[in-house]
Design goal:
transmembrane, PGG_dom, PGG domain-containing protein, transmembrane helix, mainly alpha, two-stranded antiparallel sheet
């Protein structure tokens, strides 16, 4: 009798431990419990079985322990609660507890309402970025036909740029071409965002991909425009002001660095969330059951 009573106490303590560990997302404790007592995977905590509770609480790191299981993986994944007649898919389809929805701020956490906010943010960012990119297109296109120093007006080289054989002039031409092509790409990407159908699948890959390409192209066009402007000044002033190169380089780095500081955190988040590691994965290579 004492043995049964001790077992009941032990299981009660284990259930309480499992419940608190899942609630806090402490997958290490769950892993140790399963390794010590394999039947832990069938423990009932807060009405739910272990992995059903992990799904209900949206604790993906606890649920990821499924990927470290062997033959019982399919049994756990397809298990149907005899009382509620629900499996894991039924629990996934239900809205997460309010405390879990409020733990992290993000676009994809509160589904429809948050998608609407994400939609508005995408449109606003794309609209403002399109204006900047369009201005760079205009400047780069005009600069290609108004080269610094003008053109030769007589002789066999008539019509050719005066500084054609100058290294700084080649820097100007290449930078201007990069600025034009990258800014056109940026405009196309941002227009693609504004004219998107905004379907559910678009928010997962299509829109973030367009935003990523647009931001990278915008950064390249801005950098190339600044380089082209610096090359033009060096062509015009280098013969008269020998020390102009150093101030030009320093001043050119300021807007490029500011743009990078402002936009790279957003670009990193887009790349990480779109192409990074999925939230569902093996926590480590050890088998626990």
């Amino acid at each position: 009798m004492e043995e049964y009573r001790d077992n009941d106490v032990a299981w009660a303590v284990l259930e309480s431990t499992i419940n608190k560990a899942v609630d806090s997302g402490n997958h290490e404790i769950i892993e140790d419990c399963i390794k010590a007592y394999p039947s832990t995977i069938w423990v009932t905590a807060s009405v739910f079985y272990l992995f059903h509770l992990a799904i209900h609480e949206r604790q993906e790191r606890v649920y990821n322990l499924v990927y470290q299981m062997g033959n019982d993986k399919s049994s756990v994944a397809s298990y149907v609660d005899p009382e509620t007649r629900e499996n894991a898919l039924h629990i996934v389809a239900k809205l997460a507890p309010a405390r879990r929805l409020k733990t992290v701020t993000g676009a994809a956490l509160q589904m429809q309402r948050e998608l609407q906010w994400f939609n508005e943010w995408m449109k606003g960012t794309a609209s403002s970025s399109t204006i900047v990119a369009a201005l760079i297109v205009t400047v780069a296109f005009a600069a290609a036909f108004t080269v610094p120093g003008g053109n030769i007006n007589e002789g066999k080289d008539e019509g050719k740029p005066v500084y054609l054989n100058n290294g700084a002039f080649m820097v100007f031409i290449i930078s201007d071409a990069v600025a034009l092509f990258s800014s056109v790409t940026s405009v196309l990407m941002f227009v693609g965002i504004l004219t998107s159908r905004y379907a559910e699948d678009d928010f997962l890959y299509t829109l973030p991909k367009r935003m990523t390409i647009g931001l990278i192209s915008s950064f390249l066009s801005l950098t190339a425009t600044v380089v082209a402007f610096g090359a033009t000044l060096s062509l015009v002033l280098l013969d008269k002001v020998k020390w102009i190169i150093a101030p030009l380089v320093i001043m050119a780095c300021i807007p490029v660095a500011l743009y990078a500081l402002l936009q790279f955190p957003l670009l990193y988040e887009l790349l990480n969330n779109t192409y990074g590691r999925s939230i569902f994965h093996r926590e480590n290579r050890r088998m626990i059951h």
